[in-house]
Amino acid sequence: MPKGSLASPSHWKAFASRRRDPATKREAVxxxxxxxxxxxxxGRTSLKDVADRLNITKPALYHYFRNKEQILLxxxxxxxxMIEEILNEIAAQCxxxxxxxDAFIYSYxxxxxxxxxxxxxxxxxGDLSSDALAEVRTYKRKIDRRLRVxxxxxxxxGSIAPCDAKIAAFAIAGAVxxxxxxxxxxxxxxxxxxxxxxxxxxxRGLARVRKPGRVTAASPAHKE
Amino acid sequence: MPKGSLASPSHWKAFASRRRDPATKREAVxxxxxxxxxxxxxGRTSLKDVADRLNITKPALYHYFRNKEQILLxxxxxxxxMIEEILNEIAAQCxxxxxxxDAFIYSYxxxxxxxxxxxxxxxxxGDLSSDALAEVRTYKRKIDRRLRVxxxxxxxxGSIAPCDAKIAAFAIAGAVxxxxxxxxxxxxxxxxxxxxxxxxxxxRGLARVRKPGRVTAASPAHKE
Lengths: 224, 224
Hints:
homodimer; two-stranded antiparallel sheet; elongated; mainly alpha; 2 strands; 63% helix
């Protein structure tokens, strides 16, 4: 079993040894819970399910998280942290707005194929308490604003055709977020294929642009 | 109150008169339930909530639907029916593949702004029984296949640049499906604005295509 793999279905080994540090155990809880949320939905997963799969008792689980929502928020924070790191890296890079959008889609699509990304984006916000909802919405808003700024930069530097940056950002984020609904780790499409093709399709568009007298296919913006 | 409006929050009037036909009452149940699923999530909505809002008893509700999942499936069938009708109309039209994709996005985006579309797309599949899941997946697959065929037609007729039609269809469907996650009927963006801009952004792409010596913005494929 690939220990530490983000998609690994069983993380009980982290609890099998007394020597593991609390952070490792905490992450093992999140990995296991994310897997269960994907298998059974957040609503149908109980703390007992999580404890059982980790081969620990429910009271031992309470040592790390006080309820199921806190576990979900833990997953969310991990996923959001990964995305934020990516966004900081992209923002610090030189390049056109279009290149930044391209890099954003490629990296974000990759996060959407790992369990944290998948389970947090599949979540029904109606299942959250108002505090948790506020936190989750803050993450979403942050990501959305950064993407919007990249698009606006692209419009300003001429790499992106004039458009409504707000709606365009929603369209891109939606396409990428939706990956969590159909992606299967065992399926025929690899994360790399999806990320590359999404970056290409969404930045360059579907439409073939006709120049008078000849036909030119859009060239890929993303380097593979 | 706009009677019969898809977004109307209260449909108890359908039950206030003895003369209303069963189909009207059945639809009133679905409208009310869709509204509640959006407000509280599917998991947190009880049959009692639905009955209370309709001002009827729970046994009266059982006359129309035998459980909550059947109500959800009823919503799903209505939403899927609308989309299927649109797809048949588009398929019957003349036009390039790109024009069909454009029409699909525009119409589908509109469905995603009404309550049936919103509540069914926000659903966590893990909340469904295996029979219901099979039915829901059949709808999704059907829609996805039709969109894929439009894209393939576009590649064949030269209106769409060569791409992986399967992944492109997922990207488009995802962007449109995700509308249910952020659209607010009272928000600043109208359904018409969203549908038009999505059709434009997703079919023509973000990238400005530079012709040697001058810069040309992509012209909108969708007629407003």
